[in-house]
Amino acid sequence: MKITESAFAGSLESSDLLVQIEPSSEGGLFIDLESSVEKQFGQAIRKTALDALEKMGVTSARLTLQDKGALDGVIRARIQAAVLRSTGEETIDWSRL
């Protein structure tokens, strides 16, 4: 999937995260993470985010995550929503995810 515009998903409520995705002018995937638990779980959050993007076929994007203690399922769901909003596609093959 090609990221064509900036999009958001999620919130800054407890146990959630705010995701912003935008096209990357450099190519490749870049993740900016802000989290109060980054020292303990930063690597796991980044891995979950990269996995979600790869499963959706995103190869070039800048992802900004503001984490408030979200679990893996929430991270994946918010990234999926942001990707769909940023591509303009209305349907997705959920069996790939």
From TrEMBL:
Keywords: Cytoplasm, Lyase, Phosphoprotein. The keyword NAD does not apply. One of its GO terms (molecular function) is citrate (pro-3S)-lyase activity. It is found in: Cytoplasm. The modification O-(phosphoribosyl dephospho-coenzyme A)serine is found at S14. It holds the Pfam family ACP. The keyword Phosphoprotein applies. Its main location: cytoplasm. Covalent carrier of the coenzyme of citrate lyase. Belongs to the CitD family. Oligomer with a subunit composition of (alpha,beta,gamma)6. This is Citrate lyase acyl carrier protein. It comes from Endozoicomonas euniceicola.
